[in-house]
């Protein structure tokens, strides 16, 4: 069973920064994809960023250049550095893991569509005031 725990959310003013963390544990074989989603009240959960199998990162257009996703393989922790935050970034942010087959790959925008079977943590709230 996959277990994801997010942390690092909070309230900041416009232009501020936050760094989200996601500690991953549990059975994730044979391969998996990692990324971040966010969800505003009453809206669908939306992909924000993710790693492709070649190690490259892709971002939602509205956050590209402001957010950076990174991964510490030693501690199995995923990060999302968020700079120049805007009020429209206000949402609950979720770490996501998708288990894939041995011969499958994480395509560049695998996170653009939420799939049945994707794992999420409990989320961490990010609030940006104007």
Descriptive notes:
The chain is mainly beta and 130 residues long. It has strands at residues 2-7, 10-13, 18-26, 31-39, 46-51, 57-59, 67-72, 77-82, 91-100, 119-120, 124-129. β5 (46-51) and β6 form a beta hairpin.
Rg from alpha-carbon coordinates: 14 Å
Query: What do the pLDDT scores average to?
Result: 95
Largest sheet: 7 strands, mixed
- Number of separate strands: 11
> Which structural class should the secondary elements be placed in?
mainly beta
Strand content: over 45%
Written as H for each helix and E for each strand, in order along the chain, the element string is EEEEEEEEEEE
User: How would you sum up the global shape?
Assistant: globular
Binned, the helix content reads under 10%
Distance between termini?
Answer: 40 Å
Q: State the helix count.
A: 0
* Sequence stretches where pLDDT stays below 50 over 5 or more residues: none
């Amino acid at each position: 069973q996959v277990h994801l725990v997010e942390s690092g959310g909070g309230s900041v003013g416009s232009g501020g920064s936050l760094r989200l963390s996601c500690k991953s544990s549990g059975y994730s074989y044979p391969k998996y994809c990692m990324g971040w989603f966010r969800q505003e009240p009453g809206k669908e959960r939306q992909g924000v960023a993710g790693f492709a199998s070649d190690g490259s990162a892709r971002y939602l257009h509205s956050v590209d250049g402001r957010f950076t996703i990174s991964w510490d393989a030693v501690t199995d922790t995923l990060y999302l550095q968020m700079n120049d935050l805007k009020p429209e970034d206000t949402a609950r942010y979720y770490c996501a893991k998708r288990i894939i087959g041995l011969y499958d790959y994480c395509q560049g925008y695998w996170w653009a569509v939420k799939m049945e079977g994707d794992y999420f943590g409990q989320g961490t709230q990010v609030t940006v005031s104007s």
